[in-house]
Amino acid sequence: MALLPILRFPDPRLRTRAAPIPEIDNGIRRLAGDMAETMYEAPGIGLAATQVDVHKRLIVIDISETHDELLTLINPEILECSAEAQVGEEGCLSVPGIYDKVERAERVSVRYLDLDGKVCLVQAEGLLAVCLQHEIDHLDGKVFVEHLSQLKQLRIKAKLAKQAKITA
Q1: 64 and which of 47, 69, 107, 167 could share a cystine (Cβ 3.0–4.6 Å)?
Q2: Stated pTM of the model
Q3: Catalytic hit among 37, 41, 89, 135
């Protein structure tokens, strides 16, 4: 397995809509493994293929504290969102050091394929529901800061540009 470079906002490649995966082969399984390793190393709780510049509908999530409950979702699709919303602080591996409050559905139902091609359904609430919505947004070319006001987005871009100059 290998660590993959993570794209940083406002990289335009993060706006690319990911294509469905027509066939689950060893390349997809290897990508999922590399993404999981990258996510754990970062450290994070979710990673979409878009964030590693692979524009396929694949996400990995592990919200456990022990990092032993990896969920790999291929072609995930939100079937249903609750009318009730929750507001929580979100961060993102593509927007390092930035956290802000985002409103999301409290509960979601998501259909996906696992690494064996089996159709699965997850009913999620709380942190898992937020993480699923956040990562599926990435597959649709949307970063969490786009849920914020224009002013906040401008401030975040300026802060990240300043960080990039310091580390360059």
Answers
A1: 69
A2: 0.94
A3: 135
